[in-house]
Amino acid sequence: MQSFTPFLVVAVALIDADGRVLVQQRPPGKPMADLWEFPGGKVESGETPEAALVRELEEELGIRTHESCLAPATFASAPLENKHLLLLLYVCRKWEGMPEARHATALQWVRPAQMYALDMPPADLPLIGILDALI
Ligand SMILES: Nc1nc2c([nH]c(=O)n2[C@@H]2O[C@H](COP(=O)(O)OP(=O)(O)OP(=O)(O)O)[C@@H](O)[C@H]2O)c(=O)[nH]1
């Protein structure tokens, strides 16, 4: 049997009033540089997934939201290097502030169908159709 080391990541589809979703481009020098992803990151030890996401949104985009505004949407499960990625994807429609690219190279608002034309991490591909059906 293959060994399983879970690597827990949280991410969010921020949805605007037009039903578009925010994606950000990973900066050079990081693994998967230049790919477009959902904002989020690793869950630190001792942190709940929701607290991690609230923290990541403040750090990466400078926006504030509340755990009660994060609705669980779907998840991805995929091998990643020598680990196994479990990515919990939430949906959020309510936050304060204007997202700015504090860590990412760029941000863009896209409809789920437009995501198929973007280079995204392989684990994200199954999430697009689910997101499209959800919003
Ligand atoms: N945020 C995010 N990470 C994703 C997505 N899809 C995906 O495979 N990942 C992977 O999940 C991991 C997230 O780690 P990260 O390095 O971005 O997390 P972080 O913000 O805590 O990074 P840091 O080490 O700079 O603090 C990366 O290996 C990334 O490639 C996604 O849609 N959003």
Automatic annotation (TrEMBL):
GO terms for biological process: DNA repair; DNA replication. Pfam families: NUDIX. It is an enzyme of class 3 (hydrolase). InterPro entries: MutT-like (IPR047127), Nudix_hydrolase (IPR020476), NUDIX_hydrolase-like_dom_sf (IPR015797), NUDIX_hydrolase_CS (IPR020084), NUDIX_hydrolase_dom (IPR000086). It catalyses: 8-oxo-GTP + H2O = 8-oxo-GMP + diphosphate + H(+); 8-oxo-dGTP + H2O = 8-oxo-dGMP + diphosphate + H(+). Its cofactor is Mg(2+). Keywords: DNA damage, DNA repair, DNA replication, Hydrolase, Magnesium, Metal-binding, Mutator protein. This is 8-oxo-dGTP diphosphatase. Belongs to the Nudix hydrolase family. Residues 5-132 form the Nudix hydrolase domain. Its EC number is 3.6.1.55. One of its GO terms (molecular function) is 8-oxo-dGDP phosphatase activity. It comes from the Bacteria.
